[in-house]
């Protein structure tokens, strides 16, 4: 670590305890003092190395300094000193790839997350792989100073990568540091990309991802196993896929033998993508392709209308976007989950299956499942748990806020 780019930091006792327990975030309120830095005044620049010491001047942890964020230090390593740079990035990536070896060696899946931010001890950055295209998404400007080194390590570790795309969180997309480097969301950083969306395989089915302009990095990789599970119970079923996005659940249901698939989303582009993905996989259907309907509309309105018409389905999937971006949003998010349940359960045939998910870390599993169960009971049905699922192996959980995805598979009994 160069003395000209490092800061010596002391924390409050409470913040120090959290770091020693392995938490990857130090908030601005947890900092008592800062010394050093490239200007010598303790201010620091995004991406500077922050070395945390205790009151006896013993090393505690090291991280990246982020003066523009309430999370002031993104902790990389604790317990013993390490050099921050390419060797550390290489070590982190090697460990991340090792824990995903099962997926990397899969013959029927070639899209996965290979770095999951804080949960792979690389806070503020994720890397998703779609075949031979890597997508690096930054959630903090701290990584701009280390981006070239990270890309070198990435391409050395995964030699098959032919192109690298940069995605930027909305919070930093217009930051002067980003703009000053000539970067923008969707920039191709290394190699080249084929024209149009990237085609990839998920559990033997083909999909496409717009890695330069699509949501997240182009696809919601975290629901991969839940989509396969839906496919495994869809044989002979009439299926409703609400908040269908690109139709992942719809396609797996069709390939699993569903007789009818109705996909709903507010975005016309999502409905178009769903139709295209269904057509792309028509040969994977075990029998005659199901009848399909795509509806553009608000999920609450569409489900209400389907209920008034007396429509019934054997399998209803409700996978909404995050309703709780902030702690203050949690009560409203829980009310929304309850409202979705009350609209969904009348649409499920008795003995059929409701699949309902939440992707908000701010909503606990206990609160989410409790709300869904209470809403169902108030609607006159019992939910019999079949399975409760979480995150797949490429989205590991290493600290409390890292746990966000939960899904309930339940049989509806009237």
What does the model show?
There is one protein chain. With 414 residues, the chain is α/β, with parallel strands linked by helices. It contains 11 helices and 20 strands. It has helices spanning 13-20, 86-99, 101-104, 147-157, 176-180, 224-232, 248-255, 268-280, 299-308, 330-344, 365-378, and strands at residues 6-11, 25-27, 31-36, 49-53, 59-65, 71-78, 111-116, 125-130, 133-138, 163-168, 188-191, 198-202, 205-209, 238-242, 260-265, 291-296, 313-318, 348-358, 382-389, 406-413. A 7-stranded mixed beta sheet has the order 16-15-14-17-18-20-19, sandwiched between helices. Strands 2-6-5-4-1-3 form a 6-stranded mixed beta sheet. The chain has a 5-stranded mixed beta sheet with strand order 7-8-9-10-11.
- Radius of gyration from the CA trace? 23 Å
User: Going across the major beta sheet, what is the strand order?
Assistant: 16-15-14-17-18-20-19
The description of the largest β-sheet is: 7 strands, mixed
Distance N terminus to C terminus?
Answer: 65 Å
Task: Give the overall shape, derived from the CA principal axes.
Answer: globular
Helical fraction: 25-40%
Oligomer: single chain
Sheet-strand content, in percent, reads 25-35%
Quick one: how many beta strands? Answer: 20
Category by helix and strand content: alpha/beta
Mean pLDDT, to the nearest integer, reads 95
Low-confidence spans: none
């Amino acid at each position: 670590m160069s003395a000209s780019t490092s800061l010596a930091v002391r924390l409050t006792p409470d913040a120090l305890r959290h770091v020693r327990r392995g938490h990857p975030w130090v908030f601005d309120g947890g900092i008592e003092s800062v010394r050093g830095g490239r200007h010598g005044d303790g201010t620091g620049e995004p991406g500077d190395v922050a070395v945390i010491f205790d009151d006896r001047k013993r090393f505690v942890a090291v991280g990246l300094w982020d003066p523009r964020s309430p999370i002031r230090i993104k902790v990389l390593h604790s317990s013993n000193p390490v050099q921050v740079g390419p060797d550390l990035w290489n070590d982190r990536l090697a460990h991340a790839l090792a824990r995903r070896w099962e997926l990397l060696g899969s013959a029927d899946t070639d899209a996965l997350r290979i770095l999951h931010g804080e949960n792979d001890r690389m806070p503020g950055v994720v890397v998703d792989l779609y075949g031979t295209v890597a997508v690096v998404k930054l959630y903090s400007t701290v990584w701009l100073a280390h981006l070239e080194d990270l890309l070198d390590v990435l391409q050395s570790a995964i030699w098959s990568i032919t192109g690298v795309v940069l995605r930027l969180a909305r919070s930093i997309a217009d930051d002067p540091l980003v703009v000053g480097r000539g970067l923008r969301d969707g920039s191709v950083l290394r190699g080249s990309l084929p024209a149009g969306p990237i085609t990839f395989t998920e559990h033997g089915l083909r999909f496409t991802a717009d890695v330069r302009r699509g949501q997240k990095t182009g696809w919601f990789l975290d629901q991969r196993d839940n989509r396969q599970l839906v496919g495994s119970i869809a044989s002979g079923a009439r299926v409703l896929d609400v908040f269908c996005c690109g139709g992942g659940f719809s396609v797996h249901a069709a390939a699993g033998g569903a007789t009818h698939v109705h996909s709903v989303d507010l975005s016309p582009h999502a409905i178009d993508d769903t139709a295209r993905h269904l057509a792309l996989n028509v040969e994977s259907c075990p029998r005659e392709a199901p009848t399909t309907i795509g509806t553009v509309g608000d999920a609450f309105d569409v489900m209400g209308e389907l209920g008034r018409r007396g429509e019934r389905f054997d399998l209803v999937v409700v996978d909404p976007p995050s309703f709780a971006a902030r702690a203050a949003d949690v009560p409203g998010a829980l009310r929304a989950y309850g409202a979705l349940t009350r609209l969904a359960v009348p649409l499920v045939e008795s003995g059929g299956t409701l699949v309902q998910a939440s992707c908000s870390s701010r909503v606990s599993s206990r609160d989410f499942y409790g709300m869904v169960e209470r809403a169902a009971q108030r609607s006159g049905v019992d939910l019999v748990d079949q399975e409760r699922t979480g995150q797949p192996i490429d989205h590991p959980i290493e600290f409390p806020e890292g746990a966000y995805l939960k899904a309930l598979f339940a049989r509806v009994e009237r």
